[in-house]
Amino acid sequence: MNDCGDCSDETWGSAACPPCGPGWWSCSPVHFQFCSCIPRRLCRDGAQHCLDWSDEFVCTA
């Protein structure tokens, strides 16, 4: 979980977000708990997780 907002707590001291894996959707999330990816299980769930709403209109689970 991204507790700092810049993922610095997730990448051993660097402030860069890790790359998205196959179970993740790449976007700018609206909540800091995610870095630059959200879990695909959140795609098309009726709630906005990406600033551009791509998780609801583009992403496939």
Automatic annotation (TrEMBL):
Keyword Disulfide bond: yes
Keyword annotations: Disulfide bond, Lipoprotein, Receptor
InterPro entries: LDL_receptor-like_sf, LDLRAD1_C
Stated name of the protein: Low-density lipoprotein receptor class A domain-containing protein 1
Superkingdom of source: Eukaryota
Phylogenetic placement of the source organism: Eukaryota, Metazoa, Chordata, Craniata, Vertebrata
Residue ranges annotated for the LDLRAD1-like C-terminal domain, each copy included: 18-57
